[in-house]
Write a structure and sequence with these properties.
Length: about 270
């Protein structure tokens, strides 16, 4: 739902995912999401601009009790990235090291992620890579997108507890809902988290099944070409929640008009 809307209206919007959404619109959208998702129409003027959909996607991911990148995978990625930080920051990043990291991270994703998390992460990283291809207009490079999404996709087990406490007290802290959740223990890992998400976005085509990535690319392209015309003919489907884990997005990219794209589990 949110990704589809951003593909329709936000591909070339400067600062997409970086600029904060209107606070009141986010809170109202969250209420409707929790009440009846089938009645949500993000094209309704009451939600303001496309930054509301973008902000809500970040908010939703950040408030999941179990992050898309699980605690186990979090520490595996940190250990893989940490020894190569200086190399990852170098423009002439050695192809041998990159190839090794690809293989190790691909194995880690398949080993440590539930199927629904795996498919959802593929959809998100493919979407972010698509966004980055319009960086000359939206000013959102892969590095910029990684900075925004690292704290929403990667949280340590302690961060998870912080997120849970924030959710329980969101009525008192709604103004902070769009801020990054980090604590003293995870702050030291921040640069590695950013590099890990940057690597996942950059290497999406390699890390996830070709058939899935090609499907996501085509659907993003279909929605992004002449968006105003597409908007008149597209039906934006709703989110499908995995019955085995109701807190995880399992379908966030639409197929063509009237069809719902379900991201099937991959082994």
């Amino acid at each position: 739902m949110c990704i589809a809307h951003v593909n329709l209206f936000g591909i070339e919007v400067e600062g997409i995912y970086r600029i904060s959404a209107a606070h009141r619109a986010l809170i109202e959208l969250k209420k409707e999401f929790e009440t009846d998702i089938t009645k949500i129409n993000l094209s309704d003027e009451k939600w303001g601009d496309v930054h509301t959909a973008a902000g809500f996607l970040k908010l939703f991911l950040r408030q999941l009790p179990t992050p898309i990148i699980t605690s186990t995978l979090y520490y595996v990625l940190i250990q893989l990235i940490k020894p190569h930080e200086s190399e990852l920051l170098c423009p002439d990043f050695a192809s041998t090291v990159r190839s090794w990291l690809r293989q190790e991270i691909q194995t880690a994703l398949k080993t440590h992620l539930p199927a629904s998390h795996f498919a959802t992460l593929a959809a998100i990283t493919a979407h972010l890579k698509w966004i980055s291809q319009f960086e000359q207009k939206n000013c959102m490079t892969i590095s910029n997108l990684a900075i925004v999404f690292a704290p929403t996709l990667m949280r340590s087990s302690i961060d998870k507890n912080v997120a849970g406490n924030n959710n329980n007290n969101n009525n008192n802290n709604n103004k902070n809902n769009n801020n990054t959740i980090l604590n003293d223990n995870s702050t030291s890992d921040w640069s590695y988290c950013r590099l890990a998400i940057e690597f996942l976005i950059y290497e999406t085509d390699y890390l996830f099944p070709t058939s899935l990535i090609n499907q996501l690319k085509q659907e993003s392209a279909d929605l992004s070409i002449t968006p105003r015309q597409n908007a008149e003919h597209q039906t934006i489907p709703q989110i499908s929640i995995d019955n085995t884990n109701p807190n995880v997005l399992q379908a966030i990219i639409p197929r063509k008009t009237g069809r719902l794209s379900l991201l099937k589990p991959f082994k």
